[in-house]
Design goal:
Elements: E1 2-9, E2 12-19, E3 22-27, H1 30-44, E4 54-57, E5 60-65, E6 70-74, H2 76-85, E7 87-90, E8 93-96, H3 102-112
Antiparallel strand pairs: 1-2, 2-3, 4-5, 5-6, 7-8
Length: about 110
């Protein structure tokens, strides 16, 4: 489950996105960003902070271009890993593994209604 916390202060925004044991902190204000990181350190102790224009998260590579005000999100590696983990090779035949998902259960229940 991913949770997002948004803090507004004096027209500035801080967003904290959580996923399992990972936090991503974004802000329109460098001051609020550092203050938020310091508050998180008070709670969690030493934390790892990644700065710069390229970030890796959940199999994605996010590259920020500040001049163009753009963010490029590259998911090629993630998609290739998903595909490769779902393929079974048997000699010259490639078979896709079948995997049950929670959505499959919902569609079965809906058919019964």
């Amino acid at each position: 489950m991913i949770l997002v916390f948004i803090i507004y202060e004096s027209g500035k925004v801080v967003m904290v996105r959580t996923h399992v044991d990972d936090l991503k902190v974004f802000s329109t204000s460098q001051h609020l960003l550092y203050r938020t990181v310091n508050e998180l350190r008070k709670i969690y102790g030493e934390i790892t902070v990644h700065k710069g224009d390229t970030h890796y998260n959940l199999g994605m590579v996010m590259t920020h271009n500040r001049e163009k005000q753009q963010v490029k999100i590259d998911v090629k590696k993630y998609i290739n890993n998903c595909i490769n983990s779902s393929i079974e090779e048997d000699r010259d035949v490639v078979k896709i593994k079948q995997v049950s998902t929670p959505a499959a259960k919902l569609s079965i229940q809906n058919e019964r209604m």
